[in-house]
TrEMBL record:
Swiss-Prot/TrEMBL keywords: Membrane, Receptor, Transmembrane, Transmembrane helix
GO cellular component: endoplasmic reticulum membrane; Golgi membrane
Record-linked InterPro entries: CWH43_N, PGAP2
Organism: Rhodnius prolixus
Domain CWH43-like N-terminal: 14-236
Protein name: Putative fgf receptor activating protein 1
Coiled coil: none
Length: 256
């Protein structure tokens, strides 16, 4: 039996492209909306002075919404693939590192981590395709789901990564530190995001919404940075499409 490789894609390249899609789209949407549609993106219910539009504002208007939605549509598929890859990766490490009787709940924790990732990806799709202008109450609830699932996923991912890598190489240690740094950044900015949102929503302070938006951009960037560490975790892995072919000897043996 021989195998013929029909297609080969580096996971390093796939992870970088997956992260660059929403990042580039976000920059394009921001520049375009800020340049040509300032009146639309700065409008809030308080009608106070604002200089930084939220992500929802710049991706909820046309034509920017189509750029953003296309980028997320292309982004989601690889994210689900990478989520499954991490699931089996952590499971294999868990079985090698821990005896079954030492930490029997680790596989369940890894499974929970996988579903958290799926919830985060689903929530990202939700806030993308149900904009705040389409249905604000639903958009708000999905956004909260995204924020909570993202933070909890980051935290548990760091814990699982640490447990399954009792002795880390320099690259693995770098990946761990990057994950931890982006998690702490997201956590701090989430606190700021909540504070400034309440200041804007309840007291209509000038620039409160701008600070909220700034926290939102930092959180989005930290989230992308956290997930791009896949290129450190799987530096030499490839996505393959192969075809199996029978050799003459194998075909003869099969006929016998």
């Amino acid at each position: 039996m021989e195998t013929e490789i029909r297609f080969q894609l580096s996971l390093r390249k796939l992870s970088l492209v997956t992260v660059l899609l929403p990042l580039v789209a976000l920059v394009v949407c921001f520049v375009s909306a800020y340049t040509f549609q300032q009146n639309e993106i700065h409008e809030t219910h308080c009608r106070v002075y604002n200089v930084i539009p939220s992500i929802s504002a710049i991706t909820g208007i046309s034509p920017e919404r189509y750029i953003w939605r296309i980028s997320i549509a292309l982004h989601v598929g690889p994210r689900i693939l990478i989520a499954s890859l991490y699931y089996y990766y952590y499971l294999s490490l868990a079985h090698n590192v821990f005896p079954a009787n030492k930490f029997p709940d680790l596989p369940q924790l890894i499974s929970f981590l996988y579903w958290l990732n799926i919830i985060e990806i689903s929530a990202l799709m939700g806030v993308t395709y149900i904009s705040n202008q389409d249905n604000y109450p639903i958009h708000e609830k999905i956004f909260i789901t995204f924020m909570v699932s993202s933070l909890v996923y980051m935290l548990i991912s760091i814990i699982v990564y640490h447990w399954t890598h009792p002795s880390m190489s320099s690259v693995q240690r770098l990946s761990y530190r990057i994950k931890a740094t982006f998690f702490i950044t997201s956590l701090i900015c989430t606190v700021g995001l909540i504070i400034f949102f309440m200041k804007h929503r309840l007291y209509c302070h000038d620039l409160a919404f701008s600070w909220f938006a700034l926290c939102e951009y930092i959180i989005a960037s930290a989230n992308m940075g956290f997930h791009v560490t896949v290129f450190l975790d799987f530096p030499d892995n490839y996505l393959l499409i192969m075809k199996k072919t029978l050799t003459i000897d194998a075909a003869a043996a099969k006929n016998e």
